[in-house]
Amino acid sequence: MRPFERRLITLCSAALLAAAPARALAVGAEEDAKTLFARGRELRSAGQCDQAVIAFRSALEIYPEGLGALRNIAECEEELGRYASARRDWWDLRRAALQSNEAKYAGWTEDAEARYRALGSKVGTLTVRLKGAEGKPPVQVVLDGKPLDPRLLGVELERDLGAHTVELFYGGAAPIAERAELAPGARQVVTLTVPAPLPARDAPSAPSASGTPPSGIRMGGYVALGVGGAGAIATVVALAVRAGALSAVEDGCSPAGGGAYECPPSLQGDYDTGKTASTLASVFAGVGLVGIGAGVTLLLLSPSEPTPPAPGKPAAELVLTPTPGGLGSRLLVRF
């Protein structure tokens, strides 16, 4: 035997050995498919077409060459009133029968095509249209829980009879949903309108040149006026205390010349009180003047309020009035 012939025989033997497991697997799959097919026939005979369809589909997935399972699926769906699904399966059977060389499937092409055409008048169609999507962010249409290809918008889609839900997801809090009920031969059109975008909220007002909001300037003026008024009131109180201490010193001491007094030791406390009150009166008077001046300045610089004070009446005023015991004061502030 020539070397070439020996190599050829070796290659053929290897090919046959490799094909043997594949043939074994195919035989095993066919046997499993026959078991499932038999189970589907039992369920169909018992009037349980819903469960039979599941068994037939399992058999078809294991052994696609077994076209009897596909034919039984189409017939069961037709019995259940799922005319759109039945038409699709009849057409798949027609295509598979054309490609098969099995003698047992002879004539199935014509049978499948006839059933496909006969169900045409019973099928309901659903057309989904989209309105107002131009110039807006992309949206998504979902039909019966499954995303709808945008290329199918505006196309008549065959669907089984009964209720169908169309949802439009456009970025809002909840999708827009429409429900359609298909009857035999019905032609339903569902139009979904994309809502206009919500108007943008007004932008916050820009801060003033100084970086402080107008309301802050006005409030600062009120605070400064309050501090100035408190300083003025403290000044009046300090002056009253000084006046009382000075009166006690003048009554209990004798003049010693040069504006000095000769006082007994018991009046030392009154003298010290008067001296301290005099110092505090000077300090409080300065605080009051600065506070009132700053407050008035800030109020004058702040923008006008929507409801300004009545003409001729200032927003804040300090009133000093004489009283029987000395000098009285009142700070009037209007908010």
From TrEMBL:
It comes from the Bacteria. The chain crosses the membrane at residues 219-241, 280-301. Residues 1-24 form the signal peptide. InterPro entries: TPR-like_helical_dom_sf, TPR_rpt. SUPFAM superfamilies: TPR-like. The keyword Signal applies. This is Tetratricopeptide repeat protein. Keywords: Membrane, Signal, TPR repeat, Transmembrane, Transmembrane helix. TPR repeats lie at residues 33-66.
